[in-house]
Amino acid sequence: MKRTAILSSVMAAVMLAVSVTFGQEGENLWSSGTAHTLPQGRWEKGLFQPLRFGLSDTKELRLNPLISLLAPHIHLKVSRRPVGGWQRAYRYGIISPTPLLRMVQRAGTGGFLADDPDIGEVPWMVMIRQEVLLSRPWSRGLVTLKGGVAVALGAGDIDSRLQIELPVIYPRLALYHSGYQLNFGLDVSAQLSQRLVLLGDADLFFSPALDGPAWEHKGMMQWNKSDRLQLSFGYKLTYTPFPWGTQWHLIPLFDLQIARQRGSERL
Amino acid sequence: MKNKPFISLAMLALGCEPLVTTFDEVEPAVYYEAASITEVAAPDTLLVMTWNIKFGGGDINFWFDCHGERVIMTETEVLGNMQALAAKIRELDPDILLLQEVDISSKRSAYVDQLQLLLDNTSLNYGAFASMWQVQYIPSEGLGRMNTGQAVLSKWDVADAQRIPLELIGDQDALTQYFYLRRNILRATTTVPGIGNIEILSIHAAAFSTDGTKKKHIDRFKLELDQLHSAGVTFFAGGDLNTLPPGSTQLNNFDDSVCEAEEFQAADDHSEEVDWLNEFYADFPGGYFPAVPLADYLANNSAYFSHSTDPVEGYKRKLDYIFTNSSAGWVGGSHRTHQEIASASGALSDHCPVTVQWVAP
């Protein structure tokens, strides 16, 4: 039965990895998830979190190197001058999930999508997303508002059976069935001590392919051992309108992130 | 009980609903009721029927039979097949119906609640359901969500419905076993006006077992019937036993068995099962009254064949049964094995229904 627990963990990890890959940034544990960008030359990478790199003090790149082999993607965040006390940023993302989805469209174990001749192969699809982020300090933390729109190209009239009815993944794949999706979110962080940070967020997804909005909430505790090492753990609570009805899911989260500053021995 | 910590882990990882519902103990079954109740007068004769409906798959060739590669049906396909099944049930008009392979919320059948659909489209009014495979997500073949099982339907109220768990296949690895089917006996009571209480039992015994699990399922079914009979309870019991009657002339090498996998070939070789149903067919009261008397079957096996993986080419073996302990037995000559549901133009299921009449003594 240990293998059952292992399988569950692997599936949970797949969910998280794919959720990040499918274009919804938000698990930006150290300094992201906000309208702020990394300093020029700094990079951060977690076990599950994607690689983020500060191209300049106002531009940040993000990608998951391993998953990009199966789902080519890149995300760029550009910060702008504050307005009315709100730091502004725009996030742009592009991804093609097709190779990853085709990999799991198979017979036997690991078949998340049916290799059914009546359904056909997953078509070549590209998603383009743009989001606006607004952040401002409050008390001992930071509050961030975000809103975005994503458009799927190439999905056409993709077969409705090409869906993976799992939390986190299902609302993101809905984009390819409706052609577009809107998302709105709120992130709040609070500095509990010099090294402890509490994060909470809520995200809403709207898509014509969903029978109502999908809702996700994350709560995380971060322990910043230094500017180079961070441990985090928490949970994600999801409310998903599946075809058979809405369901709640609670998913444990944890991560270990490291960071370095290019051109500097120590941050 | 030893599985509980791991099940809890799976719940934690994948949600507030268990990844796999394990049904460790005898549990209440799920009750159903037609959207509109059809009033039925006190009957003189009851028609009892059993049918494995292949989750509304009709004559679609699925991957598991090796005749095709289909996995997930469209909603249009499912509704079309289910309406055809409902039409056949309306035509035969059973008073009591035992069903196997009924999907109530499965991706492969477009999440159609097939039991509710049948109740709403026939003159049957009440039902009970016991799942044999309830999994949030099966990460294999693209199956996804699954909830399928047996049902009993009646024109009269159904009560005291129980799901009696059967032994799991023992020679599977733990992971496969965790995600695999959990067979059971569905038992319920229907109260027929002017006749009284009758116990209805529906079983779908293991198909793919090489460790004797199927024999254990059949023996457990017999034990359940013996206990009811000892208690003086009248029963109609049946379903898909996945084994052949005693004296069957062909036991293996069926020409519809095209899967080459060892497991499938072993499952379709019944040469070691020749005496497994002897106790059912023994003279009453040690045995019980079969819908199709053994003498009729032995005189012409093929007339009573009820299953084929390719029914358009004809049914190849008898797997579906109904028994009673009523002292009057069934109405002589009233049994029918409805092979007409398959023809060159298609089939309603890979199993055909069996019906038989009963008159209260």
Give a quick rundown of the structure.
With 267 residues, chain A is mainly β. Chain A has helices at 2-21, 65-68, 98-103, 169-178; strands at residues 42-46, 51-56, 59-63, 73-83, 86-95, 126-138, 141-153, 180-191, 196-206, 214-224, 229-242, 245-261.
Task: Tell me what you see in this structure.
The complex is a heterodimer of chains A (267) and B (361). Chain A is built from four helices and twelve strands. Chain A has one domain (2-261): Outer membrane phospholipase (ompla), Chain C (Beta Barrel). With 267 residues, chain A is mainly β. Chain A has helices at 2-21, 65-68, 98-103, 169-178, and strands at residues 42-46, 51-56, 59-63, 73-83, 86-95, 126-138, 141-153, 180-191, 196-206, 214-224, 229-242, 245-261. The radius of gyration of chain A is 18 Å and the shape is globular. In chain A, strand 1 (42-46) and strand 2 (51-56) form a beta hairpin. In chain A, strands 1-2-3-4-5-6-7-8-9-10-11-12 form a twelve-stranded antiparallel beta barrel. In chain B, the strands form three sheets. Chain B has a seven-stranded mixed β-sheet, with helices on one face. Mean pLDDT of chain B is 92; it is low at 1-13. Chain B is globular and about 50 Å long. Chain B has 361 residues and is an alpha+beta fold. Chain B has a single domain, classed as Endonuclease/exonuclease/phosphatase (Deoxyribonuclease I, Chain A).
